[in-house]
């Protein structure tokens, strides 16, 4: 195959702050990966508590009006990518005034960025569309600037040559989302006619430790009682890590004051480092000290001090005005997400064929309220 990298859309600005951006994709060739870059500019006085991942509601690829090939939220895209690729998204998370935040989200239709066997054959459809629903929170302080959402799109394409055998398309879609309660089970019945590469379970509550809100994950055939996967949440994470995982680091440009909090999306934090980028003031002997003095789940509480050194005295006081710093936090991956894996051999025939079971069901045991819980799947379909 001849690979082509096509810059399909170049930083297209959106006039609305809440809409669905629709784009028709090429009608010929094989699409391996679409690299979608979403960007938005912080408000003029700061962008605390907003993230580009929150500005985008859903990313979808839909063929011929009704065939959903790809449908995930940005946090799902991030967690699937971190888990299976072993690295974080290309992303800038910034709180700086007028800072540009962006994320590059690879929408993959094969097992890798380029897969010669699994891809999306565009010519088999009349129309394939990318649809991105977005609604950034806008404000001069603590939000995004109005009218600054942009989209950029690179396509990894190939065109058929003799000997190429198409074996299917890797689809991604959400099966169920709900908010957890303090106890009890939630059942998610799987479609009974698909080949599943992996089942993903996401459970996140801001500032709460990973594994608190969902404590057990079971995949079984409810028709016969046969259990195919039975694990506590910690086992699910350990299995995912052994098969795919690596430690993940998230980088954040802070614009904060003492006792502010920052949510890192890393649930098992192993460490962090903060470097002040606020200019010191030589004329008055002022300098800034940044650290984190408490951790709760993915949340760090910041301790920001201002020091002053004079010939006869020194002083150290809490900083009550936003200052600049760079934060890197790293932790055990995956965080708040694990997979029930069927990709350990990663060839057709090794995936979970749900047609072999009467009522395949994922059962999630709840241990805490208020988590956002999502079950999604990677499935193989031949078009």
List keywords for this structure.
nine-stranded mixed sheet, mainly beta, Adenovirus Type 2 Hexon, domain 4, 383 residues, single chain, globular, 3 helices
Characterization of the model:
The chain has 383 residues and is mainly β. Among the domains are: 166 residues, Adenovirus Type 2 Hexon, domain 4; 84 residues, no CATH class. Helix content is 7%, strand content 52%. The strands form 4 sheets. Strands 1, 3, 6, 7, 8, 10, 16, 18 and 22 form a 9-stranded mixed beta sheet that branches. Strands 2, 4, 5, 9, 11, 13, 23, 24 and 26 form a 9-stranded mixed beta sheet that branches. A 4-stranded antiparallel beta sheet has the order 12-25-14-15.
The CATH C-level name of one domain is: Mainly Beta
What is the CATH architecture assignment of one domain? Distorted Sandwich
Give the name of the CATH superfamily of one domain: Major capsid protein Vp54
The separation of the N and C termini measures 20 Å
Judging from the principal axes of the Cα atoms, what is the shape? globular
CATH topology type of one domain: Adenovirus Type 2 Hexon, domain 4
Q: State the low-pLDDT regions, or none.
A: none
Number of helical segments? Answer: 3
Question: What is the number of strand segments?
Answer: 26
Describe the main β-sheet briefly: 9 strands, mixed
Helix content: under 10%
Give the SSE order as H and E letters.
EEEHEEHEEEEEEEEEEHEEEEEEEEEEE
Please give the radius of gyration in angstroms. Answer: 23 Å
């Amino acid at each position: 195959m001849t690979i082509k990298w096509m810059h399909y859309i170049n930083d297209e600005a959106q006039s609305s702050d809440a809409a669905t951006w629709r784009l028709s994709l090429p009608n010929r060739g094989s699409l391996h990966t679409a690299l979608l870059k979403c960007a938005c500019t912080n408000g003029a006085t700061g962008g605390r508590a907003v993230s580009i991942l929150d500005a985008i509601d859903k990313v979808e690829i839909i063929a011929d009006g009704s065939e959903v090939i790809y449908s995930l939220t940005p946090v799902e895209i991030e967690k699937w990518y971190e888990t299976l690729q072993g690295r974080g998204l290309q992303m800038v998370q910034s709180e700086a005034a007028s800072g540009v935040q962006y994320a590059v989200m690879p929408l993959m239709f094969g097992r890798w960025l380029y897969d010669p066997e699994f891809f999306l054959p565009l010519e088999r459809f009349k129309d394939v569309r990318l649809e991105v629903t977005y609604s950034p929170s806008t404000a001069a302080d603590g939000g995004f600037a109005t009218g600054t959402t942009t989209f950029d799109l690179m396509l990894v394409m190939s065109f058929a040559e003799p000997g190429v055998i198409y074996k299917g398309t890797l689809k991604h879609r959400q099966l169920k989302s709900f908010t957890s309660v303090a106890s009890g089970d939630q059942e998610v019945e799987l479609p009974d006619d698909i080949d599943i590469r992996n089942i993903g379970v996401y459970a996140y509550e801001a500032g709460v430790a990973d594994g608190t809100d969902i404590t057990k994950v079971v995949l079984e055939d409810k028709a016969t009682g046969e259990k195919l996967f039975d694990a506590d949440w910690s086992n699910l994470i350990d299995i995912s890590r052994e098969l795919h995982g690596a430690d993940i680091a998230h980088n954040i440009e802070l614009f904060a004051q003492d006792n502010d909090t920052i949510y890192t999306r890393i649930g098992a934090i192993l460490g962090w480092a903060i470097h002040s980028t606020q200019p010191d003031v030589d004329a008055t002997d002022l300098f800034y000290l940044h650290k984190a003095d408490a951790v709760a789940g993915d949340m760090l509480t910041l301790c920001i001090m201002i020091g002053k050194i004079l010939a006869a005295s020194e002083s150290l006081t809490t900083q009550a005005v936003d200052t600049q710093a760079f934060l890197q936090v790293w932790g055990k991956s995956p965080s708040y997400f694990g997979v029930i894996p069927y990709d350990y051999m990663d060839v057709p025939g090794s995936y979970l064929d749900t047609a072999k079971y009467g009522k395949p069901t994922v059962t999630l045991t709840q241990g805490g309220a208020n988590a956002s819980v999502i079950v999604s799947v990677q499935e193989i379909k031949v078009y």
